Amino acid sequence: MEVLEACVVRAGLAPSAHNAQPARWTLDTDGATLFCDLRDTLPASDPEGRATALGCGAALEAMVLALSAHGFGAEVDLAEAPRFNRGRGLETVAHLRFTEAAAEDPLHRQLERRFTWRGSFDAAPMELYGWSRSDARQVLDDKGRAWLAERNDWASLQMLRDKGLRHELLDWMRLAPRHPRTGLDGMDRAALNLARAPAAALPLVFGPLWRGLDAARLTPRLTAESAATRTAPVIALFHRPRGEHPVESGRAYLRLGLEAASLGMAGWPMSALSDHPAINGETCTRFGIAPDRRLIQAIRFGKPSGAAPPRARRPLSELLV
Question: Is the pLDDT confidence value at 88 over 90?
């Protein structure tokens, strides 16, 4: 059982929107069940639950990878239509039945190395060594990356004009060192790459000052990321078949991030490009993503220009139910 619990902890290293970590587990001697904790969904920014499903799928794949390090395989049975966007209980996502004598998947070694980098990337050119995936359109040219940077800034600002979304985002930020959830979930100053003064001002900017700042046309300058975005040598447009189970998409998403980590890269999602319907469509058209595919996420990838921030993760006691 100690080995299985260690695998649950490693599965908790998977990425999730706002670092909400909605995945929960039960264990027995021959299998495990994955649940989504509906209390940790994002109704304002993720009303359809797609980002939550992606995070649960990433946790599922991380569990499969962690098991492989100990010679265990896992047959996965996905729930047919789990909810990811409403309710307050536990929703069954998948059941794993353990099998023996499985080959080790070397990608598990990247679970501890993968992290999100929300800042400028190193100017040194990346050596991708032919890295490619059929489900990720890599944008390498300056013109394409500049277009994506500008559209991401525009879409992000439109979405931030939703008061509920701003408040939800603030709720998952751990800007004060004494916040009771610091180091456990959400995003602290280091993870957000924020200096002390901007972090202190952010609740005011996203709160009572927003309407005045927006009326004065100052919000574009305050929310822009394009300068940092354009330092990323590659932007990956991650797309999957329409109609695919969203948890399967999450499994593939984790593997994309781990492959990037194996090449020395860190990633930074550009969620507005996929979440804003009009910009999603424009992006698919411009970069040749077929109508039978769905743009799930755009990710800036590159060599980080600094050390990885401390990782906030839930303890085992919060992951097991």
Answer: no
